[in-house]
Amino acid sequence: MPASSARNRARRLARHGADDRGQGITPALVCPLVLAQAAEIEALPAGQFLTDPTKLANGLRALHGAFGTDVIVTAAADDLAACSLAGCSPAGCSPAAAAAGAAGHPRVTAAVEATRRLAATTGDTVLAAALCGPAQLAAQLGRAPAGPAALEEYGAVLLALAKAFLEAGAHLLLVVEAEPVPRAVADGWRSAVTPLVNVARFRQAAAAVVLADPADAALAPRGAVVCLPPAASGPGQGIALDVDPAAWPASALRLAGRPLLTTLGPVRGGFAECRAAVGKLTAALAEG
Fold this sequence. Notes:
It is built from eleven helices and eight strands. By secondary structure, it is α/β, with parallel strands linked by helices.
């Protein structure tokens, strides 16, 4: 059976989520969270690159061409959400105020505008926005383990960011937890993440929850593709590769049959190192 187009595969993933069991989604959507490496192409410091929508869109387009994947990542589950809350003290912002402020942060507006421009100019390419999960956001802000009030605030912020990227044209939303979700906040975590999955599906985009701990898979909202480390992933679920490309599996057999491959956060390393690693990964998948 010939491979379907990238956006068709993303649409199929959006319609069927984890219940699709990977059927018809071949080859897998390969979505390592590479973004900062594009700053090297534009020869700019990361801070300047990430706040300039024109440079960001151009750099990501060039990165996509160099890496040869069918996904462009416009947000990479880094410190974007934490930076957007820098001016809002926990005691001084309601969830609604925090969400409104986050959506207007320069890094957010640049990434959203780059998403909008790429959606209009990149043809069949899938656009992915990856946000850190509420537990990781709490940790970045020094409030881990987070209580119910913090999770409500962070959930509102992440929902505002998710809506902005989806309205700009993102086809895939990923929520990434690079560390285990604290058991004490499991219910609150699920309550914060569920609206993110729901809004993606409402916008007919695919949703994935990327987890470091397989035990957290039971918390994932219905309809999301659960991405777990290769040794733990169940049939039909996505793969969450290490952020270090040197740790990626050499054998495609451990990755075969999965509809989505991503990473547990921004991929480490420079442009050349990441380009070589992604090339080996896609070649292994093609051979498998």
